[in-house]
């Protein structure tokens, strides 16, 4: 399988720049988290990668060739989105057939099993489904479709906790059986932390983070104790946010710690999670 | 402040029973989580408590009196819901005035501060807002309205992680300054675990859990080790779910442990969280 390369993508609507020179690669067989605040441009970016809309400039390539007008390459990319693209009278089972016609080799066995697991009937009309049911029916297509790059825009919209857990488990299972690339774009960062290997953060129309999850978390340290000692210890380190209560201060560092610097007894070192790292990075632009 | 009592509420639509004899109390100045799967009847229940729809039988009381047709009592209850009840041309600031007229003493200072925090303008028309912005504008009303019982149905719909964190912080702050009762009905159980004191779980149209969070979590034990030892240790305890990998078994217990029973060296005791407790309780009806 070939790498997918997003190269210098710019998207402008009149005078508004939605994407400002975005470049990154998607490796084959990897699970990505695409994170960003509301309005950051995630949906626009996913629509460009899947050729639903055109960039103002820049290009998406697979194996060095532009996907533009290349049906063979476009057939490697599938986007599950919030938009409802199906005719109103279409039944869930017919959306499976559409994916089979477009991408070939649709996994009907998996789709049937997932219909049961999500408590859906293939005969139900898409237009009559609740938000959670509609999301589930789209997830089934996304997991059973034969594509090397599967992009999921808000894949858990309206799902209750049980169905979210079911989706996460089925995603991992499907990925292990047939490794391919998934891009998960969601606001539920806490929940996908267990799934993603690599994180892309889009903020203010640019990519500010493009790192493996492990590398990110290895730099996320919460350091708390008497304010003076915390300040001394964190001097020279990148501090994203600090909170004080009385004389006790907690500083959220995003940096490798200097192992040679001794840690005072009264200072406590802890880790913090991806969701908080995201919030601190995108709140007011400390980064 | 008086207790709110939900007494033997039944709600039927034709032959479908949505709520099957629901009874519980809401204490003054307490934060509740109302949890349930999609379709469990949470929204119907909240609509009945706030007198937007009528039960088939049963009654909601405050201080022993029925709220039905009692304006004084109804003015103690506010429901923030997904439904859009405002006229299309209404501006956010006008929704504040409506809440002031209906409930009196609207906290305009708080509302102004929250408008800035959520990056909204009071002049924006409700109909032009994105889902996340509309949710934020409703949350501002819910936090600034003068009501003793504030019911929040899906309060975080469409909010990004930053705005969810902002809401949780402002809720706690507002609650500390002016203690009153909040009921949070949401699918993001992991996130509200830090906020709620008491948990109500609605499953298959009945209340199956009505307990303080601490009491629930004190009974949630994950017990793992060699299958034989785990089975011996958990004999007689309520086990909600078990998973096995090779000879290693993990059983999710929902029970107080018998402290007199010795724990074998190879068996590991852990806790699990509210979201998983909810999933195990409502998946297939182990309870």
From TrEMBL, chains A, B:
Matching SUPFAM superfamilies, A to Z?
P-loop containing nucleoside triphosphate hydrolases
Q: Where is the ABC transporter domain?
A: 4-229
UniProt keyword Nucleus, yes or no: no
One family from Pfam that matches here is ABC_tran
| Top-level taxon | Bacteria
Q: Does the keyword Nucleotide-binding apply?
A: yes
Single Gene Ontology MF annotation: ATP hydrolysis activity
- Alphabetized CDD domains for the sequence: ABC_DR_subfamily_A
Task: Supply the SMART domains for this chain.
Answer: AAA
Keyword list (alphabetical) reads: ATP-binding, Nucleotide-binding
Q: Which InterPro entries match?
A: AAA+_ATPase, ABC_transporter-like_ATP-bd, P-loop_NTPase
Sorted alphabetically, which PANTHER family does this protein's record hold?
ABC TRANSPORTER, ATP-BINDING PROTEIN (PTHR43158:SF5), SKFA PEPTIDE EXPORT ATP-BINDING PROTEIN SKFE (PTHR43158)
| Protein name, per record | ABC transporter ATP-binding protein
Source species = Limosilactobacillus albertensis
């Amino acid at each position: 399988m070939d790498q997918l390369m997003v190269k210098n993508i710019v998207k402008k609507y009149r005078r508004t720049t939605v994407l400002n020179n975005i470049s990154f690669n998607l490796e084959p067989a990897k699970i990505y988290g695409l994170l960003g605040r509301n309005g950051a441009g995630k949906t626009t970016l996913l629509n460009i990668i899947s050729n639903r809309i055109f960039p103002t400039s820049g290009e998406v390539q697979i194996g060095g060739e532009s996907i533009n007008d290349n049906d063979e390459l476009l057939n490697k990319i599938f986007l599950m989105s919030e938009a409802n693209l199906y005719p109103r009278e279409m039944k869930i089972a017919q959306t499976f057939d559409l994916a089979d016609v477009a991408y070939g080799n649709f996994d009907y066995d998996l789709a049937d099993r997932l219909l049961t697991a999500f408590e859906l009937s293939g005969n139900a009309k898409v237009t009559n489904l609740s938000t959670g049911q509609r999301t589930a029916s789209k997830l089934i297509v996304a997991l059973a479709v034969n594509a090397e790059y599967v992009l999921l825009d808000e894949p858990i919209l309206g799902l209750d906790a049980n169905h979210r857990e079911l989706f996460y488990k089925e995603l991992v299972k499907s990925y292990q059986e047939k490794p391919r690339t998934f891009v998960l774009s969601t606001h539920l960062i806490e929940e996908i932390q267990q799934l993603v290997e690599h994180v892309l953060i889009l903020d203010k129309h640019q990519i500010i983070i493009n790192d493996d999850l492990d590398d990110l978390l290895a730099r996320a340290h919460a350091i708390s104790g008497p304010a003076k000692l915390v300040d001394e210890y964190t001097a020279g380190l990148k501090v994203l946010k600090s909170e004080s209560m009385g004389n006790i201060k907690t500083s959220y560092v995003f940096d490798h710690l200097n192992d040679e610097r001794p840690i005072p007894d009264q200072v406590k070192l802890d880790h913090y999670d991806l969701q908080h790292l995201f919030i601190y990075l995108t709140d007011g632009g400390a980064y």
